[in-house]
Amino acid sequence: MFIEEQLENVVSGYFQELGYEYVHGSRLPRDFKEVLLFDRLEESLIKLNKGLSIDVIRETIRKIRTFDTNDVFTNNKVFARYLTETVEVTEFVEGKTVYHRVSLIDWENIKNNNFLIVNQLEVLEKGGSKIPDLVVYVNGIPLVVIELKSVSREEVNIEDAYKQLKNYMNVHIPSLFYYNAFLMISDGVNTKVGTITASLDRFSAWKKINTEDDIIENRPLDTMMYGLFNKERMLDVIKNFILFTNESKIMSAYHQYYGMSKAIDSTIKATQTDGRAGVIWHTQGSGKSYSMVFLSGNLVKNEKLKNPTIVVITDRNDLDGQLFSTFSGASNFLRQTPLQAESRSNIKDLLENRKTGGIIFSTIQKFEEETGLLSERDNIIVMVDEAHRTQYGIDAKYDLTTGEQKYGYAKYLRDALPNATFVAFTGTPIETTDKSTTGLFGEVIDVYDMTQAVQDGATVKIYYESRLAKIRLDETQMSEIDKEYWRMQVNEGVEDYIVEESQKQLSRMELIIGDKDRIKQVVTDIINHYEDRKDLVAGKAMIVAYSRKTAFSMYQEILKQRPEWNEKVQMVMTANNQDPEDLARLVGNKQTRKAREIEFKDSINPFKIVIVVDMWLTGFDVPSLDTMYVDKPMKSHNLMQAIARVNRVYPGKTGGLIVDYIGLKRNLMAALRTYTSRDQDKVQENEQAKGIVLNIIEVLRNHFHKFNYSDFFSDSDKRRYEVIRDGAEFIQVTEKRKVLFLTETKKLKDVYKICTGLLSKEIKEEIAYFIAVRSFIMKSPKSSTFDLKEVNERISKILENAILEDEVMVLTEATTSESFDLLNEENISKLQAIPQKNIATNILMRVMKEKLRDVKKKNMTLSKSFSRRFEIIVEKYHSRNDYEDVYQVFEELLKFRDELEEAIKEGSQLGLSYEEKAFFDVLGSDPDIKRLIQDETLLSIAKDLARTVKEHRSHDWDKKESAQARMRLYIKKVLRKWDYPPNKEVKTVEDVLEQAKLQATNM
Description:
The protein is 50% helix and 12% strand. The N and C termini lie far apart (97 Å).
């Protein structure tokens, strides 16, 4: 037998090996009713607070000994502040009140503190006594309580140790826990730590000793003792990695402590170098939000950073709100109340004039081109959550029709805060084909993957069950589709964006998935499956539907089969103005969603089953949720983020179950292979890739050795465009040269993503040129490369074979890259004949957009009028709910096209040139003028204005203030000549001038 007493000796032996003094509880000179060791406490406080009187020291002891309540949590929170921030004590000296700050621990010089391990400490309280196994004292204060159970007795385990500590705390000797930093439980086989508020499933092992060590799975007592109870590390955890919310006390797990410790060092180093602190990948459900809080709190109080401003960036409003709520709950730890930017102007107000401090939340969408410079300070730390989703676009892309440079959010964020330091958080593995996350943020700081989280008990296992319904796709054929796309990309030069668009168009299977009989079949199966499982945990389940329409159909079918479930089942999605009345009433508003969130998180609330489409699939934690029914195609990180909703730890929950009705298995297995990979080389910046890029650049320079493309790096959009165009012409002189160029640039595009952060600005600009030339060639009508229509036709044939059920409609038609004349009736007839109205509508919208862009170059007033109407139609299309809506939008576009054509022709019917008609529209845009002046007079004024502007325009007059001033005078003369109303003159002069400048720009 190896009894509890023997394990006690082993553990106390570890402490002595670590330099702790050991005393048996019976030999301590003390009052058994007191848990503080007053002699040691007084001696330590005198040593740590030199110069303070004995009266101040004793007043300090009196203050930490007496509390205003008997509530353990409240008193523990008060004492924790004393411990980490000092005790304020007043002293009356020579008629004046003097304030002192008394330290209970020397956090800097660890050797100044008294470390003691005591076993069998008897405590008398409430008329009885209890004897905890071990207590760790620092400076006479009981900071850690340890309960042990026999290694040999199979019937007892750490759960018994946990229950015993809870009984001590809540019933028998609560005063011992007023001072507690954390608790430890062990049966020799399992050893875990947690706080006074943690449930047993939130107690965790400590699996590393030093920061750079590997995780050790089979030595839980060793790693706990040498890892956590190393004196310096224990005090670091107590001071910097434990926080309070309103309801609980949170202690960092080992992966959070070591990961954030590395992040602190990396961030401080980055403030002095290139501002790239690095990337932290901690899988979903492993406490990433609190990791961000721990990092923020430690950066805020780091003296090297001089009271930094922390800017937390998310990419969605709901995630911004959830993370902000977590930070707000930890405001004491952060030493300030976080602020949340409500608008783009608000983020400017919060950042522009701030000199120090502050924790500010914003969505990335608030940073756009017009945001501009907000602060040049170098002590701003930007933390980006889910960085893989929106943090790209740092390098310019070029519009192949104008040469204009375009950037993404990452560029504008860095323009706004040019000297900030950036650190990225993600729950998704950084793959070599992502948007260059490591290139933007630096190398990976720490990885905590799904496998490790499950092994540590930070999350539960996810189980998968396939229950495919009616429509299913043949796995072999679907695999062949992937291979075919790859062959077209590699062998035939099909561009990535064409493949992506093809994949998007060919996945529109709402008609299949939303089939009435299929919905009924799926719902019947879900109900039967749920009723078999509902009592396993808390009965919480989530149904992920394909679309708003299918979600509503599922909801209606559930209530048709189970009318009594009207409180049990709810839908959660954003409101949509296009929803039918019954759906709109069901969905409700923002307040409705918030109420449902609270109800669903309540394990005893009757709301048990939620139907969603996109909402609640990321960043939404309901620990009791244990079943997800999926009827929506998903893959990669979107799939993993969704299924992670069921991996949270909850009492009695042994795992989360994914029930698949759509055929996720192939995508799930592919994603899991990435998520459980321990090969961290895949997430490192790649020096080898950099070498490959530089070699390809040399090859491409040789291709262009007779062509000078240096003007691409000038400031002129026009010149950049010409160099792209002429470079494409040059490289296509021979077929051999073109093929070699396309081959090399395809390789360059693939490998460039891996190592972008290692390349100089000059090299990246040169790469941008070669890729722009490649794009120009690929988009050229004379290119033999497959366009979207041809790609779709080839893939759709395979897709037809992949669908195993009958009467499946596959939308395969799409337009070619050819542009056609808006006014060509033959082409309109062709569009009307296409049965796939989604495709036809998209074609018509694109051409309308091009036509409006052309109108804008010539007629400002006409453009404004029709552009507003066009935006309304486009918005209606994007808000569509079913196929009927698409037909309606298509008909509206046809009507819009007729009216635009009529407006364009109106000038010739009035006997006006295009320029004259533009001035006529400017004058007629004011309803008052239309009433005061007859059309014949307005026609004459318009002609006079066109003639005057033409006669007096000089070279670049529209760019010179003096020339514009003269043009204003000529315009005024024309208006006064025709007795134009004086009260309307000022605005009309400016409008006419703007139209004249527009004509000059587009001559």
